[in-house]
Amino acid sequence: GENVEQHPSTLSVQEGDSAVIKCTYSDSASNYFPWYKQELGKRPQLIIDIRSNVGEKKDQRIAVTLNKTAKHFSLHITETQPEDSAVYFCAASKTGNQFYFGTGTSLTVIP
Amino acid sequence: DVKVTQSSRYLVKRTGEKVFLECVQDMDHENMFWYRQDPGLGLRLIYFSYDVKMKEKGDIPEGYSVSREKKERFSLILESASTNQTSMYLCASSPHGGIFYGYTFGSGTRLTVV
């Protein structure tokens, strides 16, 4: 099956700085890559996704890049704010039915 | 506008008890999933279902079973709870394959087995 690795496991940044979280996947047939944000005590929420026919997607302060050749994708958060503090999960899917998740990154934005 | 509802937020059970975790979604989704979430291990798939009365094992099905008698409801059963099943359990649903909308998660059930 698919194997998704996510790094780093923890990340601390100063407010206003950028944060980058990286994931790699093993199955070259995977073609859909969502990112979820889970605030403390809350459910994971989809924040952005990218499909394999696109190299980059941006939504305000967050962006995701995909390198199909290298089988890795990254989440970029610019101008970080304290409310960005959360656990972020990457995932990969090739069917749209089942997702394989990374182990999560705990992001802390220091005011 | 809660769309995936898990019946209990917190649950404390004794070792050996049979435990039922319930999940209901109101989005008419075909797919439903049960994950457990543990620090450093992320989200691990226990069981999933693509249709009523259909179930498939995920990565860590041992000690668990599931039931899907109706499209909107997916139950996770711990046949004989053990302390190593203390965890956060997350239910999720999604539309059927080919439609890449991602999952909708429930709020989670934090189960403690004592």
Task: List its salient traits.
heterodimer, A: 111 residues, mainly beta, six-stranded mixed sheet, five-stranded antiparallel sheet, 0% helix, 55% strand, globular, B: 114 residues, seven-stranded mixed sheet, four-stranded antiparallel sheet, 11 strands
Explain what the structure shows.
The complex is a heterodimer of chains A (111) and B (114). Chain A has 111 residues and is mainly beta. Chain A has strands at residues 4-7, 10-14, 19-25, 32-38, 45-51, 56-59, 62-67, 72-77, 86-92, 100-101, 105-110. In chain A, strands 2, 4, 5, 9, 10 and 11 form a six-stranded mixed β-sheet that branches. A five-stranded antiparallel β-sheet of chain A has the order 1-3-8-7-6, with no helix packed on it. With 114 residues, chain B is mostly beta strands. In chain B, strands 2, 4, 5, 6, 9, 10 and 11 form a seven-stranded mixed β-sheet that branches. Chain B has a four-stranded antiparallel β-sheet with strand order 1-3-8-7, with no helix packed on it. Chain B is globular.
